[in-house]
Every structure is written in structure tokens, then in C-alpha cells.
Amino acid sequence: MRTHMLYQCKKCPAYQPAKKQKFLSFDSADSGGKLVARGWDPDECRRALAKMIVRDELPFSHVEGQGFIEFMKIASPRFDPPSRRTIGRDIRDIYQFEKEKIREFLARNNLRVSLTTDTWTSVQNINYLVLTAHFIDETWVLHKRIINFTVIPNHKGKTIGKLVESCCINWGIERVFSIVVDNASSNQVAIEYMKEKIGNWKQLVLGGSFLHVRCCCHVLNLIVRDGMEELDSSIDAIRNAVKFIRSSPARLEKFRKCASREKVDHKGVLCL
């Protein structure tokens, strides 16, 4: 009874965590790869499992799979795998914890933040918006954090602006340096909306002259597409030739033999 009260019953006022045997292991490469002593902690195991689900983009049901359960029985018999609902709550807790860390970091260092946003429509015909924050810490290291990924009713400029404003207020971000968007006309409306709001917060730099930054990748993509239109007829001819060869196994085999005879480096299958 004394052992139970002191080392197992957490509700007992005299409870003392038992000093468990620790094992030596190497820390992750991100933490320096140092040799550390670790003890077995079920809560730490659950947090590590939740991070694995997020990093490897696994479904929550992975923890209820028979293969995973059998693996854990052998790898760590003392660990009881949680249900999909429990692992979902654990991931939500990790998200809230990391969110508060970023909010405190931005507030403590009073940093200027640059934002990048984009919207698109999924194959399920659902509109999404993503908002990414870029900032430089006190050691001049550039950081990038996705601070919002959400459904948006439509692609109108004012709707985008209001959602970006709401996200900035939620994260406590007022010192916005620039916002990077593509060349869609709706983004011009969103930028004008955000310029007005940030101006009300008295945080514009040079009157907002450099608030709107056009995405160079999108500009380059438009240039390439315009250039490709000049070559449409040639590209169509090449595609038709490839389709003709691929439509018959005999033609494809004959093409491979010709390529080998002419010593042309090829991967064996023509690609469209």
C-alpha cells in the first residue's frame, strides 16, 4: 500500500515519481546528435507518435491498424496505443502549443513579418487559402511558418483580405512588411484592403509602397506559357508522333531498336 501511494497513485499528496532506469541514446540530428539519457515515459511516447502522424502524413486510423499494434507489442510492450480520436486530440494540443510559441516569439522580439498567400480550388470543388509567414530572428536566420490553411467561401479580393486580416489578428501580427501574391486581379483588391487595415494599425512601411510584392515564380510561369504558345504547332506534332509510337507494342519495340542502333540515350519509354 505504501509503495502504491508513493509511486503509483498520482492523486495522493505524497506521490513521488519513481526514478526509472534510463537508457543512453543519440539525440536527433536537428538537436546536435548528442548522447543523452532517456527514461520511458508513456506521455512522451504519445507525443512522439502524434508528431510521427503529422510528419509522415499518416491517417489517424494508422494507430488502430493491426500491424502497428503488433509492432508496438514487441517494440514497447508497456505502451498502449491510443485510439484515432485520442491521437487527433494530441495533435491538436501540439498545434496549440507550437502556435503559442510562435506568438510569444513574435511578440517578444517585435519582428517585421512578410506574408505569402495563395488560393486554389480542389478536385472536390472546395476553395482553400494558405497563409505563410516569413521572418528573420535575432541571429539573422530566415524562418517560414504556415500560420493558416483554411476553407474560403470564394476567390473574391475582399473575402481574401478579410480572412488574411482575421488571421493576422488571431496571431497578433501587426508589423507586416510585405505580402507576396500572384497576379490575379482579386489579389489587387485584397492588397488594397490590407493596406487600409495595416495603415489603421500605424504599421505601414513607407506608406505601403512595398507592401504588394508579385510572385516572381508566377511571373516566370506566365512568360514561359506565352513563349510556349509560339511553339504550339511544333509541340502538337511531336505529341502526335509519340502517341503513334506508343499506341502499338510493335511500333514501340521498333523505335527502341532504332534508338539502340543509332546509340541514342533513352529510357525505353517515350514520355508525353
TrEMBL record:
Highest taxon of source: Eukaryota
InterPro entries in the cross-refs: RNaseH-like_sf, ZnF_BED_domain_contain
UniProt protein name: Putative ribonuclease H-like domain-containing protein
Record organism: Rosa chinensis (China rose)
